[in-house]
Specification:
Keywords: Metal-binding, Zinc. By secondary structure, this protein is mostly beta strands. Helix content is 15%, strand content 39%. Bound molecules: zinc ion. The site of zinc ion (ZN) has 9 residues, from loops.
Length: 151
């Protein structure tokens, strides 16, 4: 225990879409109350009521039942929105840059959603595609892995 106390506290936050065919595990050292979900003001995210959290030192695993994961592109077509093909819930957003996959989690899909700080507004649509990529590289989870499980 003595050695472990010197390490930053990390936790794995779990979540899913409504039907459970898309699941997420978000490994982070950020305290839950320090997350202020970013409510994106683009038309797509507004329709979903999406607000995102991420951790530039975190790790995200997306576990999808075979055939459940749908990717949707909109706006500048830079990012992939991950949606359950069965229940339609948006669980996360990712983008790839230099062979690396970054991501942010739709906070409302996490079991811990009720303890996050109040959402803040974000307006990535006001940025150019290049500015978005720069921002996301700084802000988003830099390590996103997909796992596919048979039904
Ligand atoms: Zn679902």
């Amino acid at each position: 225990m003595g050695g472990a106390a010197l390490m930053p506290m990390t936790a794995i936050l779990h979540g899913s879409c409504h039907c459970g065919r898309l699941r997420i595990a978000f490994d982070t050292g950020v305290a839950l109350a320090d997350f202020a979900p970013r409510a994106c003001d683009c038309a797509f995210c507004r329709k979903h009521g999406a607000a995102y959290i991420s951790d530039p030192a975190g790790r995200l695993t997306v576990i999808a039942d075979e055939g459940a994961l749908k990717r949707y592109r909109q706006g500048s077509h830079t990012a992939d929105f991950l949606i359950c093909g069965e229940c339609g819930v948006l669980v996360a957003v990712t983008f790839e840059d230099d062979g690396r996959r970054f991501g942010a989690v739709n906070a409302g899909c996490l079991d811990e959603a009720s303890v996050f700080a109040a959402a803040v507004n974000a307006s990535p649509q006001s940025l150019t595609a290049e500015q978005k990529v720069l921002r996301w590289r700084q802000l988003w989870i830099p390590d996103v892995v997909f796992e596919f499980s048979p039904r």
